[in-house]
Amino acid sequence: MSPKNQTVINEFQLLAFGDLHRFKVVVFLMFVIIFILTIIGNLLLIILVSKCCVLHSPMYYFLCHLSVGDILLSVNIVPNILRASLMGGAKIKFFNCFTQLYFYSGATVTECFLLSVMSYDRYVAICFPLHYTSIMDFNTRVHLMAWPWILGFTVNFIGMGIITNFDFCKDHIIDHFYCDFAPLQKISCSDTSLIERIIFVFSTPIFIVPCGLIVISYISIFLTILRIPSTAGKQKAFSTCSSHLIVVGMFYGTLITKYMTPSQGHSLLVNKIISLVHTVFTPMVNPLIYSFRNQDIRRLIKRFMS
């Protein structure tokens, strides 16, 4: 395309939920409540772990970092949803759009690695209980907490460097409520086939390796639990990792449905619903799952509230 026929795009128009404009006040209030519950729930969990000596163990420290990732994901996405739902759409600057995509991708990749780290922690606690303290010493905990964040926000530089080279010259309307790779690719006038293959090559190990580590860890955990003679012992061992299993199922279930299934297999509405579950509802539900299924946290919450 010649330069004189190319229009420079400085901002995008997010359509969000334009088809629900009749219910915009209800939708807005719903997302406000979800956003408040997400921030309060995750902050409460972080405060409890940092203040209560009972929760000063690696499992709860990793849970704190997961809550930080959920807050980052929610703060990055939900304010735009609130603005777009109330106004029937929202404009977002070119730079802000790619900044949002970067932090969304960084938080998602970080949580992938954090969930695998948490599964490794449960593997050591159940399969090697007598050596747990020596294996999960201070240096190991620091490395296991730091590397997910380092990897999450450094590998994205490669993808972002590629995506920012897209040319947007025919359309600036994104039929979504946040900036994601697929909607940006759809409105780009560049040949994205090579870029798509490059991103696929880089992104596949990011999701497959942590998921594989989780599967291997839990196979070992279940085999160890089956060898426990007493039923009470089996129930106690399983209860320590059941919350993590639920969170892993929700997190990877939405990611696989969103990114690993063919785009022709679901409509734009279904894609938006899956994205909502991943970016809005999962960060709100995670602290609730860990709170209601953990006796120590439930007891401390009651004491904290009183």
TrEMBL record:
Gene3D superfamilies: Rhodopsin 7-helix transmembrane proteins. It is a multi-pass membrane protein. Its main location: membrane. The chain crosses the membrane at residues 25-48, 60-82, 102-123, 144-163, 198-225, 237-261, 273-292. Residues 41-290 form the G-protein coupled receptors family 1 profile domain. GO terms for molecular function: G protein-coupled receptor activity; olfactory receptor activity. It is found in: Cell membrane. GO terms for cellular component: plasma membrane. Belongs to the G-protein coupled receptor 1 family. This is Olfactory receptor.
